[in-house]
Amino acid sequence: MPIPQSKETGIVMLADSCEAALRSLKEATSEEALNMVKKIIRARWKDEQLRDSGLTKPELETIANVFVQIWQQFHHKRIPYPASPSAPTPFLPSQPIGG
Residue 13 domain-assigned? Predict the structure, then answer.
């Protein structure tokens, strides 16, 4: 994979890696998710994959937090809805209408 040459492509590269990792989490807390994202970002930084992107460490911190916020929005638990009552029986006259 080529090294990103802009902030935007750096963010897309990180988003791709982080999304895949975050989707694998089932019962993770926000803190665990943030730790995972930061670990991925640190690995990309150490491998110098972000060297030409222009992204700064403070920007990477913000990116990590935003990725987790988005993950939380998609990962929230839905409130279970009560079972719907059975459908009412349609009115069927015992005698044909007009008969």
Answer: yes
* Rg from Cα positions in the chain: 25
Cα–Cα dist 14/71, whole Å: 14
Domain count, the chain: 1
Does residue 56 lie in a domain region? yes
Counting residues of the chain whose pLDDT is more than 70, the rounded percentage is 75
Q: What are phi and psi of 90, to 5 degrees?
A: -65, 150
Cβ atoms 68, 37 nearer than 8 A: yes
- Give the domain extent around 48: 7-75
Q: For position 2, what pLDDT does the model report?
A: 83
Task: Give tens-digit pLDDT for 6-50.
Answer: 999 999 999 999 999 998 888 889 999 999 999 999 999 999 999
In a domain, 93, yes or no: no
